[in-house]
Design brief:
The chain has 8 helices and 9 strands. Strand 7 and strand 8 form a beta hairpin. A 9-stranded mixed beta sheet has the order 2-1-3-4-9-8-7-5-6. With 259 residues, it is an alpha/beta fold. It has one domain: Rossmann fold (3-Layer(aba) Sandwich).
């Protein structure tokens, strides 16, 4: 029998602010976008899902929660500046140690994504009535299994190039919008021991996270980002495994008291 799949522990993080302020957003996500995403992920037997939001203590990302998180998904927009630098530093460290990170939509401008990308992460945008067609440009990639050559979202906020990100390790999706723009809407990077996936769709005033193929991409992304690793950073003085030849000059310096 094949080995059982590991249970991947997922934390779905969101600001949970728009849903409380904008009735249009609340109509799509009465319990919050994070709950909609978490419920979709929770339908998969290999995913154990919890949520965390901005206004919880430590933004819901305590050391205990991060210790129990294999993959973190991140949605932010109106309150990027309110996210604690100390929490961002902790999350960044966990990613470098091996925790996966899925950055969604306007999370492109979050402190954590900018910190890991080392770039502006700026783009162009338009909130209107654009249809988004997401073209799969890497059909063999695990993130797009079950998707097909493309899928469409009837109405979404437009994001356009230039997108201020470092060249992706892998480009997964390119989006086309009714207004004519294109955008690198799905991309991956490796930072330290951690896998990062940016996925563009998800503006708060549209029901995007109810879309079955969007939900499938996020679930596939979680599985891809899971490394099963947690390797803490060290800078050790390494002892030689084999005898080293004697350095006469080093011995001379040692005998004379000079370094």
């Amino acid at each position: 029998m094949p080995p059982a799949k590991p249970i991947i522990r997922v934390t779905v993080w969101s600001e949970f602010r728009h849903e409380k302020k904008n009735p249009k957003v609340a109509a799509h996500y009465p319990q919050g976008m994070h709950q909609t995403i978490a419920e979709a992920l929770g339908k998969h037997a290999d995913l154990a899902v919890r949520t965390a939001t901005l206004d919880e203590p430590d933004h819901g990302l305590t050391d205990e929660v991060l210790d129990q998180t294999d993959v973190l998904t991140w949605w932010g927009h109106m309150a990027h500046g309110e996210v604690s630098d100390a929490i961002v530093a902790k999350v960044r460290t966990r990613v470098l140690e091996g925790m996966g990170l899925i950055v969604l939509h306007s999370g492109h401008y979050s402190k954590i994504f900018k910190a890991l990308m080392g770039d502006t992460c700026s783009l162009t945008w338009r909130e209107a009535t654009d249809k988004e067609r997401l073209w799969v440009v890497n059909p063999a990639h695990p993130i797009v299994q079950g998707i097909g050559p493309y899928f469409e979202i009837p109405a979404e906020e437009m994001y356009g190039e230039p997108f201020g990100i470092p060249t992706p390790d892998e480009l997964i999706f390119i989006s086309w919008f009714t207004g004519g723009e294109v955008f690198r809407s799905g991309a991956t990077w490796r930072r330290g021991n951690g896998n990062i996936f940016y996925f563009r769709p998800g503006h708060e005033t549209y029901p995007t996270y109810h879309h079955p193929q969007v939900q499938l991409v996020i679930a596939n992304g979680v599985r891809w980002a899971f490394s099963g690793l947690r390797i803490k950073d060290t800078c050790l003085n390494a002892k030689a495994l084999e005898p080293l030849p004697v350095d006469p000059e080093a011995n001379a310096r040692s005998n004379t008291g000079h370094k």
